[in-house]
Design a protein that fits this description.
Elements lengths: L14 H21 L8 H15 L32 E2 L17 H19 L2 H4 L5 H4 L4 H10 L5 H4 L18 E10 L5 E12 L11 H4 E13 L7 E12 L3 H5 L33
Antiparallel strand pairs: 1-2, 2-3, 3-4, 4-5
Helix pairs in contact: 1-2, 2-6
């Protein structure tokens, strides 16, 4: 009888299968690492939910520039860097995080819904637009908005070991990139609902466009070289209970990035495509298209 060797298994000769197996193992390793972090036992459920969801979903978080060079590339006006992109007509900065008219939701009054909207708006603005967070990487303005028990887990998430997962919680511009002196562009919405445990929840879906200032303007190939986009869908909840639990929680997050520097994104930071000139020019962002589960950045 011929000797059977595991390396002769047909699956192991399939490069696509092997690549996906490696990615799956890496994602599971991130989850195990985060689950092993020390936590206060009586608070484990909510703390674990916020962190583990972020860890699992990060593997699907990056959509890079398109593989084909678009025709008719526009020259970049560095005074109006969003010109020529779909973000040009979006609202400026925090104006794009608008609070909808509050109406009663389940057993919650319109006043309670309005208060939840305002708390969530403050968190979205802090996480994605506050220069102290985005540019200076000072996370305390954001941490202070959440319930005490969640603050503990967030500080662990941002301790330097989990930067990739942390990108789902807050946007931080890579140290080697410089934002242009214009407000980011923002488009999106928030909607209140009753959560699975009867809590008041707010689902958010916002896309942010950040313009960057290139060190060598002559090397820029088009608007999407200097404009990086990120889309985040986050479910927030307002909870009551013990002093540690009471307050705002971020329960689940998904995200995608577009027209970015892949090496920065894999480390959990944001940088524009022009910092990696080997990548093809970006294709304009299509909000109507579903986020792809594929990691478009090179391995």
């Amino acid at each position: 009888m011929d000797e059977y060797r595991i390396e002769d298994h047909p699956d192991l000769k399939d490069a696509g299968w092997a690549r996906e197996a490696v990615r799956k193992a890496e994602r599971e390793a991130r989850v195990r690492r985060l689950q092993s972090l020390p936590r206060r036992p009586r608070r484990r459920f909510w703390v674990g939910l916020a962190i583990v969801v972020a860890a699992v979903l990060l593997g699907w978080a990056v959509i890079a520039t398109g593989s084909d060079t678009p025709t008719g590339q526009r020259a970049v006006d560095l005074d109006e860097p969003f010109a020529g992109t779909s973000a040009a007509s979006w609202a400026d900065g925090a104006d794009g995080v608008a609070v909808p008219d509050a109406v009663p939701v389940g057993a919650y009054s319109a006043e309670q819904v309005e208060a939840a909207y305002q708390r969530v708006r403050e968190a979205v603005v802090a996480a994605r637009l506050d220069p102290q967070v985005v540019r200076d990487h000072d996370l305390e303005p954001l941490f202070g908005l959440f319930a005490p028990d969640l603050r503990e887990s967030l500080r662990v998430l941002f301790d330097g070991r989990n930067d990739g997962e942390a990108a789902l919680v807050a946007t931080r511009v890579d140290r080697g990139a410089r934002l242009a002196e214009v407000d980011p562009k923002v488009r999106g919405e928030m909607v209140a609902e009753v959560g699975a445990q009867g809590e008041l929840s707010v689902r958010t879906d916002y896309t942010f466009a950040y313009a960057f200032a290139p060190d060598r303007p002559e090397s820029v190939r088009g608007p999407l070289d200097v404009v990086a986009l990120s889309r985040f869908q986050v479910r927030y909840s307002v909870r009551t209970g013990s002093p540690g639990v009471e307050g705002l929680w971020a329960d689940a997050s998904t995200g995608s990035l577009h027209s970015i520097a892949c090496s920065s994104a894999k480390r959990g930071y944001l940088a524009p495509a022009f910092t990696e000139p080997s990548l093809p020019p970006g294709l304009d962002f299509d909000l109507s298209a579903p986020s792809s589960p594929a990691d478009g950045c090179p391995d």
